Amino acid sequence: MNAKIEDGTTKEIMDKFIGHFEESQLWTGNVCLAAHNRGYENNYFSNLKDLQEGETILYYYQKSFRKYIVNKNIIIKDTDLSYIENTEDNRITLITCVENEPNYRRCVQAIENDDRKEE
Predict the structure, then answer these.
(1) d(C-alpha 93, C-alpha 85), whole Å
(2) In whole angstroms, what is the distance from residue 115 CA to residue 9 CA?
(3) Model pLDDT, residue 116
(4) How far apart are CA 58 and CA 28, in angstroms?
């Protein structure tokens, strides 16, 4: 997937872009992003529910990239902000809605796997 990231997670932003939780980082620590998964013109996270532990997420930012390995694909309460708190390790957190469950969100987290030196 190739999509532009825009600061904010309002419906208007996510209608066009992947939203960035502004309290999170864009490169180091916990990079937290949100997007629609169905019912809109841009459903960037439509396959988020299918990600499995051990799968790879590549994240490109300003001509650099990080490789992350999925370690969680869970359902959380929409009020649970603990997953978007900053971390000392590099990780990516992807958040989207859960169909017919307005009080819940799908949360995928992946931890950086820096094996680029070996490639």
Answers:
(1) 10
(2) 31
(3) 52
(4) 14
Cα separations (Å) of 73 from 11, 40, 76?
A: 23, 22, 10
Say what the pTM is: 0.93
Q: Is residue 104 packed enough to be buried (19+ CB in 10 Å), middle (13-18) or exposed (0-12)? A: middle
At 118, the pLDDT band (50, 70, 90 cuts) reads: very low
The yes or no reply on domain 5-118 and CATH 2.40.180.10 is: no
